[in-house]
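Journal club side-thread
Mid-discussion, someone asked how the predicted structure for our own chain would compare to the paper's figures. Pasting it here so we can look after the session.
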Amino acid sequence: MSVEAGVEVPQRRRGESAVAYYRRLQRRRRAVAAAAPNWRDKAFAEGRRQGLAPREIAAVLGTSKEWLYTVRAPRPVPKELERHVPPQDAHEDDLAYCARLYEERDAISAVMPRVAAEAVAEVEAADPTVTRTKIAAALNINERYLRRQLARYEQELDADPSPGEAPR
């Protein structure tokens, strides 16, 4: 696992295609995003037990204070995603676990545009006649979302050039 913003993101396996890696990250992100809101009430209660104010709890979770008070019934994580939710560590309280889930979701989201660009390059190198629609279908996303992912990746490249490279 690589560390992205202090959170471990699953690494690409040896011999794994970029398309397969993207889909694996996508499943992990969906699982974490589905599980995290179900921990909100427990995290809020844990934060209050620790003497934190609601705005401080919201800051730990990376959300707004208002979100803590929105009414939402917990939804079960879809069966096919349950095994992708990371377990709670024994030393971790509910607030820390919920915060870790949100951090992991955000870290995976930050990596996905780069992986999408790698997948497009890999598929186009193998078959130059393939369309972006077919690439998007292979990634299990729509073409519009693929364009947004690629645009995000271009923005990252423009904002953070490699050492020795001039900004675009």
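Post-session note: The chain has a mean pLDDT of 88.
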